[in-house]
Structures are given as structure tokens and as C-alpha cells.
């Protein structure tokens, strides 16, 4: 979640930090918010006039809506769901956006040994229903859903740009990568329109362009656990992306056990060990997917994953309440500082 803040308060996860008035500039700051991809998408940009800003907002939000229509597993007629309904074993032509996201997903699946897996849709749908019903999925239902999952059952042909699924009843779920990609795409479109000083926030996934006039970067506050417990940090970023992952807002709690909305493909169970992850990377598609992968892998293996991605940094908090343990990549300190007192 991202919200602008003043000294009156702030919101959990990610928010913008104001640090006084910007130096004089011919550019003005504009902001617009629209609902897309199941959340509120906020765009901030610097433009010369209302006449430049208004069509830029419209084009950026339309691009996000276009991607939602292609990548959503909630929309029955999305391109993603049309692929999932195609006959098993038959390659299906995919548009460039969908293929690009699937290719990045498969690459991360292979790198993490399946800790990141967009074929987990049947299992994820069971856990969505479980959160609504406040009831754990049965072992039989999980076994059936898991039999229709597994990234090795998804096949891509880059030369033909086709997608093939091995089994009927498979369901792809791009919830851990699509918002980051959409934020990238909107930011890129704004740059094509001549607006490079901009920020696109799709809930906890931000793509960030050139800095505001006279500043080194956009100041972004991060509270990984959304609990105001001393782990808050402020980042100053430009031409980068940042994503958060954790169970501060989406989880199922039964019998004193919390099950995250993030499912471990190795067990098909929502993660039960408390972990909150913030990743900074060059692109939103990477920050978004890496944050989920680190959540599944855990602190040590997650840190090793981040070290294999040049330019990526991570801040991990494990455990609960004030007893949380912090693990961070070597370059995190140069990006962040503790949240200033107000």
C-alpha cells in the first residue's frame, strides 16, 4: 500500500515521505489515483502544465488497464485465462506482454528450484477461499490442486512466442509479478511522452523514474511489517523499483497459527514463519517477483538469491513483534536510513 503522508500519520507498507518544498522549477508536481489490478494505483509526475499532465495520466492508466486485461487470473476473458483454458499439450500464441512476464517467471522458477512458481494457481485459489471461509483447505483438495501445478508443466517457445500447458485444469497466477511489470510499463510510457520525473505505485510495488527537480531521488518510506515497530526505513531512489512482501494484510489465522497468502510451492501451505521482505531492483518486474521468492526461501537462501542479481538489494525482517531479526544485503545501508522522528 502507498499513500502520501504528512506529519499527521502514515500507512503501512510503503509511502512517500515529504521533506519540505522542492527547489524552484518550471515543472509542477501532479498526482492521480485510479483503481486497477485489484488495488489503487497512484501516479506522481512532474509536468510543465495541466495540458501535459492530463493526457499522460490517461495514457499511463490505460496501459495498466490493458495489462490487467491480459494478465489477470480474476478476469474470465483475460488473455491469461484464455491460455489456461486452451487444450492441454497444444501451443498457444501469446501477445508480447504475457509472454515476457511468463518468460521472466519461468527463469526465476528455474533459478529458485520452484520457490517462485506461477503455475500454483489451483493451490492459491484454495487458499483464497480458505481466507474467505476461515477454514483450512483439506489435504485431499490440496493434493488435487498440487497435481495440476508445477513450473515444469509450463512450456514456452521463444521463437514462436507460444505457451503450452501439460495438463487440463492448470491455472497460472501472475499475482507475484504482474503489478511490478505494469508499474514498469506505465513508467516507460510516461518517459516516451517526455515525462521522466515520475513514480508509479501499484500498491506495494513501485517503479521510479528520474528524481524530483533539485533532489537526488524520491523519498519512499518502508515499513515491512506494517506494525510501527521500529523496522521502518526511508529510501531515496531514482530509476529503480521497490516492492514489499509479507502477511501484514492478507493472512488466515486458525488455532493461533497464521498462514500467509504467500504459498510455499514445496508444501502447498501458506507460509507460517513470520517474514517481511523489501526488495530494491532496477525494474519492478524483478523487485516484485524477487520479494515473493525471498519470502518463500527464507532469510539466508533469499539473501543468496539477491546476491546473484546485480544491483538488487533486500531488507528482511523475520520473527514477530519487537523480537524481529533483521537480515540485509551489503548495499542496503547506502539506500536507507531509519524513519525520522516527527
From TrEMBL:
- One annotated Gene Ontology cellular component of this protein: plasma membrane
Q: Where do the annotations place Mg(2+) binding?
A: 176, 288, 292
Gene Ontology molecular-function annotations: metal ion binding; transferase activity
- Give the source's domain of life in one word: Bacteria
Q: What is its main location?
A: membrane
Q: How does it sit in the membrane?
A: Lipid-anchor
Which reaction equations make up its catalytic activity?
A: L-threonyl-[protein] + FAD = FMN-L-threonyl-[protein] + AMP + H(+)
Cellular location(s) = Cell inner membrane
- Which cofactor is recorded for it? Mg(2+); Mn(2+)
Record EC number = 2.7.1.180
Q: Which PROSITE patterns match?
A: PROKAR_LIPOPROTEIN
Which PANTHER family does the entry link to? FAD:PROTEIN FMN TRANSFERASE, THIAMINE BIOSYNTHESIS LIPOPROTEIN APBE
**According to its UniProt entry, what is the function of this protein?**
Flavin transferase that catalyzes the transfer of the FMN moiety of FAD and its covalent binding to the hydroxyl group of a threonine residue in a target flavoprotein.
Q: Please report the name of this protein according to its UniProt entry.
A: FAD:protein FMN transferase
Amino acid at each position: 500500500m502507498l499513500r502520501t503522508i504528512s506529519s499527521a500519520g502514515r500507512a503501512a507498507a510503503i509511502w512517500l515521505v515529504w521533506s519540505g518544498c522542492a527547489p524552484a522549477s518550471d515543472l509542477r508536481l501532479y498526482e492521480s489515483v485510479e483503481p486497477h489490478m485489484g488495488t489503487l494505483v497512484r501516479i506522481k509526475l512532474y509536468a510543465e502544465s495541466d495540458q501535459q499532465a492530463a493526457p499522460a495520466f490517461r495514457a499511463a492508466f490505460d496501459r495498466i488497464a490493458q495489462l490487467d486485461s491480459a494478465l489477470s487470473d480474476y478476469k474470465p476473458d483475460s488473455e491469461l485465462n484464455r491460455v489456461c483454458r486452451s487444450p492441454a499439450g497444444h501451443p498457444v500464441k501469446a501477445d508480447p506482454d504475457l509472454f515476457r512476464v511468463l518468460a521472466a517467471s519461468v527463469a526465476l522458477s528455474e533459478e529458485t528450484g520452484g520457490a517462485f512458481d506461477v503455475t500454483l494457481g489451483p493451490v492459491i485459489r484454495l487458499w483464497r477461499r480458505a481466507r474467505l471461509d476461515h477454514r483450512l483447505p483439506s489435504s485431499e483438495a490440496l493434493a488435487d490442486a498440487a497435481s495440476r501445478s508445477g513450473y515444469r508443466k509450463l512450456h514456452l517457445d521463444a521463437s514462436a512466442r507460444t505457451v503450452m500447458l501439460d495438463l487440463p485444469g492448470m491455472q497460472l497466477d501472475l499475482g507475484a509479478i504482474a503489478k511490478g511489470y505494469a508499474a514498469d510499463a506505465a513508467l516507460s510510457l510516461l518517459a516516451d511522452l517526455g515525462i521522466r520525473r515520475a513514480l508509479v505505485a501499484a500498491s506495494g510495488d513501485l517503479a521510479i523514474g528520474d528524481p524530483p527537480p533539485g533532489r537526488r531521488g524520491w523519498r519512499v518510506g518502508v515499513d515491512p511489517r506494517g506494525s510501527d515497530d521500529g523496522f521502518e526505513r526511508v529510501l531515496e531512489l531514482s530509476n529503480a523499483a521497490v516492492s514489499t512482501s509479507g502477511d501484514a494484510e492478507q493472512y488466515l489465522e486458525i488455532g493461533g497459527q497464521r498462514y500467509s497468502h504467500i504459498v510455499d510451492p514445496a508444501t502447498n501451505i501458506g507460509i507460517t514463519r513470520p517474514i517481511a521482505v523489501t526488495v530494491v531492483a532496477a525494474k519492478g518486474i524483478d523487485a516484485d517477483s524477487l520479494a515473493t521468492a525471498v519470502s518463500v526461501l527464507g532469510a539466508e537462501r533469499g539473501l543468496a538469491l539477491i546476491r546473484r542479481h546485480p544491483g538488487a538489494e533486500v531488507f528482511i525482517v523475520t520473527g514477530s513483534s519487537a523480537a524481529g531479526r533483521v537480515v540485509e544485503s551489503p548495499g542496503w545501508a547506502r539506500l536507507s536510513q531509519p524513519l525520522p522522528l516527527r
